[in-house]
Amino acid sequence: MDKLSNKMVVIIGFAVIGLGLFLITSDYFTGKKDKAYEKVSISLYSESEGEVVDNTPQNIAAADISTTVESPSNDQYLGVLKIDKINLEQGFYDKGNPLNNVGKSVTLLGPSNYPDQKNGNTILVAHSGSSYLGYFKHLYQLKVGDLATIKYKGKTYVYKIVNIYNDTKDGDVTIYRNRNKTTLTLITCTKDDDTKQTIYIAELQE
Questions:
Q1: Does residue 186 contact residue 149 with C-beta atoms inside 8 Å?
Q2: How far is Cα 44 from Cα 110, in angstroms, rounded to an integer?
Q3: For residue 128, which of 120, 138, 118 has the smallest C-alpha distance?
Q4: Residue 21: phi, psi to the nearest 5?
Q5: How far is CA 180 from CA 4, 37, 87, 157, 177, in A?
Q6: Residues 197, 44: contact at Cβ < 8 Å?
């Protein structure tokens, strides 16, 4: 009888432990799911015979891209990116403008949404380095918590950097962002590493 009781105690003990582990891991994975980040692959650019070519894919789901607005004239910016910490203030053009090219300016990628689209993602890329095209040459100085702004259609949008990470420079870049947030993504080559590119994710401050 004592042996049977001991077995029952052991069985009940394991059952309680198992139930506890299940509840803990269930809460953990539910939390991770609630905070899941969007994983989006987009092609960047490559240099061919000295000319910069935009390799942005054209098969992005329509729901992920805002409707293209009428492009401004070549001497008129669509918006202006400003980051006080690194003394950066640079305009960028609309997607259909010939000057919207990394060989000429800070570039708004094709899969981008415009800043006024709720839960959208504005994606800007530019070269780093010491040339006159190195608009993002000081981005490496940014840290999580730093601010960036975009002036667009007479309104200023303020973003706070929430994540910085590197990705292999292979013609594609993966963007991890919270789909429930309106975001700004900045992409450039990683300082002192020709094999990597750095991605800065910033969220709009309400």
A1: no
A2: 10
A3: 138
A4: -60, -40
A5: 55, 9, 30, 17, 9
A6: yes
What are the angstrom distances between the C-alpha of 188 and each of 36, 76, 83, 119, 126?
24, 24, 15, 23, 6
Q: Which two tokens stand for residue 160?
A: 């706070």
Cα separations in angstroms, 191 against 87, 99, 187, 197: 18, 25, 12, 8
**Fold adopted by 37-204:** Sortase; Chain: A; (2.40.260)
Coil, strand or helix at 114:
coil
CA distance 125 to 200: 10
The predicted model scores a pTM of 0.70
Domain ranges of the chain: 1-35, 37-204
- Tens place of pLDDT for every residue, the chain, 206 residues? 555 566 666 667 666 676 655 555 555 444 444 444 555 555 554 433 333 333 333 322 322 333 333 444 445 899 999 999 999 999 999 999 999 988 889 999 988 999 999 999 999 999 988 788 899 999 999 999 999 999 999 999 999 999 999 999 888 888 999 999 999 999 999 998 888 999 999 999 98
CB atoms within 10 A of CB 30: 10
